[in-house]
């Protein structure tokens, strides 16, 4: 036996590994796709400096100074004026459903009080449920107002009093934002992974052959496989809610019905995704890889860690296709903002559509044979 290294034997092993790699196309695709996705997401989509956030204006006075303030906000990098709020109720709805991150209120008789030197107030309501998104704009607001009024009043003592009202999270506690979002990310990872691994494990152990030999239909297999995990997901939600309330002091101010409907729907969506992954993966390792491929954009593009409105438009468009994005909006709105079912319906119906589409695709991909 030749104890020295043989170049021919090394080359033969290399050829064998390359051939095996080309056969396992899914794993090879993940090896290439995950770094590319990380580069794009972290390089372009992730932005901790919240800029150009949607802002509504309550115009109690539309004089020159008021218009100058709005113009200064528009030209700044912190606010995007998206419309005029006709009433305080309309402004409250916009903050509650997330269509506005800020509401600026210019009071009646603002110009008259300013001319008299009475230092009128300007109110900035911010959606404090995301302290990162609200922080930069709130901190810059007073300076923007001061600069806007300099052409009228000069560099005198601040001619107006700026009042910052951080709604839903006055203390700016990060836990009130992160802990409700954890419900979405944890369910995304565990539900999809458990279901996908369940079927691929049966295929690896050979027990799937007995299942395929039965007269069951694809939708029957799907319902039977995901139903036990619905109870597991419900238990996870209960544990997370208890921890959020008693460990971190996160309130629950909104509709329990809206929360239950959204949670049940979100669990089913992720279980259906796991079932779909099991029709693609050939091994438990591949099933885990697919789950992680789903988890990364769910973690980064859903608004869980980074302000959704501060992301580029293409990243926001991708985020709208992720169930976690809509579920986190519902959870935060219900728990922190006291939202009811009609308030969060715009985030619930996309999950219904996603659930139907994913279930149909998974059922059609389900194979009645082991080939």
TrEMBL record:
PROSITE patterns: ABC_TM2 (PS51012). It is found in: Cell membrane. This is ABC-2 type transport system permease protein. It comes from the Bacteria. Residues 142-369 form the ABC transmembrane type-2 domain. The keyword DNA-binding does not apply. Belongs to the ABC-2 integral membrane protein family. InterPro entries: ABC-2_transporter_component, ABC2_TM, ABC2_TM_bact-type. The chain crosses the membrane at residues 26-46, 178-199, 229-250, 256-278, 290-310, 344-363. The keyword Transmembrane applies. Gene3D superfamilies: abc type-2 transporter like domain. One of its GO terms (molecular function) is ABC-type transporter activity. One of its GO terms (cellular component) is plasma membrane. It is a multi-pass membrane protein. Keywords: Cell membrane, Membrane, Transmembrane, Transmembrane helix, Transport.
